[in-house]
Amino acid sequence: MVCVLILLEACLAAQNNAGPTVSSKARQIQESAIVIDTHADTPQRFLDENFDMATVTPTGKGHVDFEKVREANLGAEFFSIWVEPDQFPGHYMRRAMDLIDSVYVQAKRHPDRMVMAYSAEDIIKARTGPNKKLATLLGVEGGHAIENDLHILRDFYRLGVRYMTLTWSNTNEWADSSGDINDPKVEHHDGLTPFGKNVVLEMNRLGMMVDVSHVADKTFWDAIAVTKAPIIASHSSARALDPAPRNMTDDMLRAMGKNGGVVMVNFYSGFISDRFRQAYAAQGPEREAAMKAYEAKLKAEGKPTTYQYVNEVSKEWTAKIPRPAFNELIDHIDHIAKVAGVEHVGLGADWDGVDSLPEGINSVADLPKITQALLDRGYTEAQIKGILGGNLLRVFREVEQVSRNLQAQSVTASGSE
Description:
The chain has 417 residues and is α/β, with parallel strands linked by helices. It has helices spanning 2-18, 24-32, 43-49, 66-72, 92-109, 120-126, 150-158, 194-206, 217-226, 250-259, 269-272, 274-300, 307-318, 326-339, 367-376, 381-416; strands at residues 35-40, 74-82, 114-116, 134-141, 161-165, 209-211, 232-233, 262-265, 345-347. It has two domains: 24-273 and 324-416, Metal-dependent hydrolases (TIM Barrel), CATH 3.20.20; 274-323, no CATH class.
């Protein structure tokens, strides 16, 4: 009898790590929801690997393709326009434009499966009727891409960019990043500069969501104080559960709730588990040396050294660290829902941009497990649908309304002069 109990406990533990079995109820919720993820780095694969969304990628080689999208009933994806600052100095906008173009190429190549979307209403239209398509949106990750020029910001909006992360891991000329905030060699600004505050206000006017993932704490508070519209964190988790500087404190989460914004939970193992993060940090010198050696080898062979290629070495190292349990990911969603409010949490996985995910999460196709886990924790169908995408849609609509109001005020003011 004891042996049977031990075996049962082992089976339950294994299931707990890998995620729950998806019930018919969870599947029904998943299939009837508008599921939105706000962060996929797949454009790098489009551009640097000539990857096509119609190609079914094996586990460990890619997180997003049409088959995985179908299995998850993913309705909308914000594809990340991320420029590695060290690799493209002086060419941030050019690289960003190339990435944007790569997404448009995919949409043109597969008009029966994906469609470019520019508004909350476009997302609804893409998911209405018998021929549902993946609503395809763009988010610029890192304000350095606008090269300190509001004209470029406006051009990005015209091309379909609907959010911009104020910084990536690098402090730019107008906003501090959490990635280098403790680096004495980097010149910081104590948050947002006057130009940085103008960037936030111009994003409000355009109808572009302000994204505070990656930013330093003071930058976050400056953005909250300046913005006239709800803001988002496109891929951030809870610092109370994992003290990574990229994660958000409970005070920040409460501020996001008051602002009306939404925190989209990042699935990366290092932002979910402090144990994983510390083990990853301990690997640092050896892993970095291995990655630099591989990059040098690629250069010698005349091959690309962009993130997607060098990241293959990083994956080999992170594979040596036990992945966080599936429920640790759900804990972050649960914590943010309790602190900020259930209307202020969503999903921003960081697909194709990370080298480790929690147990049970191997690709977009595993999203229904999250729905089941939320059901198991007592969330209602309406609350789950909000987390899956409804909360982000609400913020998107409110940002659009603020934009309309601001532009109408501008017209009225100019007419009265």
